[in-house]
Structure formats: C-alpha cells, structure tokens
Design a protein that fits this description.
The protein is an alpha/beta fold. It has seven helices and ten strands. About 35% of the residues lie in helices and about 25% in strands. The strands form two sheets. It has a seven-stranded mixed sheet, sandwiched between helices. The protein has a three-stranded antiparallel sheet with strand order 1-2-3. Helix 6 links the parallel strand 7 and strand 8.
C-alpha cells in the first residue's frame, strides 16, 4: 500500500507501519500509523461513514437513547458529517440541521448551514431551518489548540457554553444536549448550569474515543425551560 510521500509496510505483529520520508515529521508518521491500525477508521470506511467519530454518537445513543423519538436534531460542528449520518440512519424521517464553520459536502436529508453558532445570523438560520423546537442538540465541536493547557481549556469551554446557550433557546421541554468536553468534564459553573436546566447530567467516554484522548462527553437529558425551573 502506497501513500503520497512514503511507503507503508507490515510489522511483525501484522500492524501497518509507515516508513520515514523526507519532509515528514516523526509525529506525522505516528499519526499515519495510528490511522492505518485503527479498527474504527477501517470500520467507518467499510460502512461509508465520513469519520470514525460516527461510532461515538452511535455508542452514546445505544447507552442513553438520545435519538429515541427525535424528530428535530441539530448537529453543531458537524464537519465532515459522520454524526449527521448516524442521525439519519437511525431516525430517517427526522429533520436534521448541521452547522459548521467549514464547508461540508451535501448529505441526503440534512440541511447544512455554514456559519459560526456565536453569530446571531447563524443562530436565526438554525431556528428557521428547524421550523419548531429541537428534541436533541449534539456538539462535537472542539477549539483549535494552541498548546497552552489553560488557554485550550478556556477556548473549549467557551464553545460548549455557546452551544448550551443555543440549546436553551431551541430545545423542546424534555430535550437533550450532548457536548464534547475535555478530561475532567465540564467545569463547576457549567456543570451547575446544566444541572439547573436538565434533570439528568452525566459524563461518558464512548469506546470509540481513543484511550489516549482527553475527550469526554457531557450528556444532559430532560430539558427544563426557564419557566419550569425549580430549586
């Protein structure tokens, strides 16, 4: 098997290895080897999913029943579209709106919006596309890292908060919100807010998440509109 810029071979253990090539860093070699040997990458390709991340949503749905009865779903940070594929596979008749700052190749039955969810214009387009309240808001958004742990954490929390603010506006009572967080889960302030607005808040790491990844997911279910808040 050949790859542009180098050649792969087989190690004694049956795993693919990437031969070092000019202009390729050691980290790039490690990344390529991990991709070549990742069973989820191979399974996603075989199933026609756009990313291995599709299995993360599938596993979370299997555990928490997120898509059960869902008729309107919003996918924040949807590129390249793996999560939207799972939603349409499991809820073919659901209205699905995918949003990202990156261009996404068209997906059958999915309305795609190019924009930043923090932009009021984008938020209004989402509301208009839903034509009603959402049953589920899912977010696999992640801020670009800069290598500074505290800064990266704050940037990621900012995205989660933006996603939650939108979810609070568009969710149907009883709806759910799912978002990617970093190791340790949501911070105390965000967690308190989630617990105030949802009756059930849990953290989970689906099997499809790489063991060395710091990502977790917060699963908030049974949304309570502000007027229904209680102590």
């Amino acid at each position: 098997m050949s790859i542009k810029g180098g050649i792969t071979g087989r190690s004694q253990g049956g795993k693919s290895r990437v031969k070092t090539a000019r202009g390729r860093s050691t980290s790039s070699v490690r990344w390529l080897e991990r991709q070549l040997n990742d069973p989820y990458v191979k399974a996603a390709k075989a199933a026609g999913y756009r990313s291995r991340a599709a299995f993360k949503l599938a596993e979370l749905d299997d555990r928490f029943g997120l898509l059960k009865g869902a008729s309107r779903v919003v996918d924040l940070g949807c590129a390249p579209g793996g999560w939207c594929q799972i939603v349409k596979e499991r809820r073919p008749k659901a209205r699905v709106v995918g949003v990202d700052i990156l261009e996404v190749e068209p997906l059958p039955g999915v309305e795609l919006i190019l924009g930043d969810i923090r932009d009021p214009v984008t938020a209004e387009r989402i509301r208009a596309s839903l034509d009603g309240k959402a049953d589920l808001v899912i977010s696999d958004m992640a801020a670009n890292t800069v290598g500074h742990k505290q800064t990266d954490h704050l940037r990621t929390m900012g995205l989660i908060e933006a996603g939650l603010e939108l979810a609070e506006e568009i969710l149907e009572p009883g709806g759910s919100f799912v978002a990617k967080v970093l190791a340790g889960g949501a911070d105390s302030q965000l967690l308190a807010r989630l617990k105030q607005r949802f009756r059930s808040v849990k953290h989970a790491k689906p099997p499809a998440s790489r063991k060395d990844s710091s990502e977790w997911y917060v699963i908030a279910q049974d949304f309570r509109p502000e007027t229904a808040d209680c102590p």
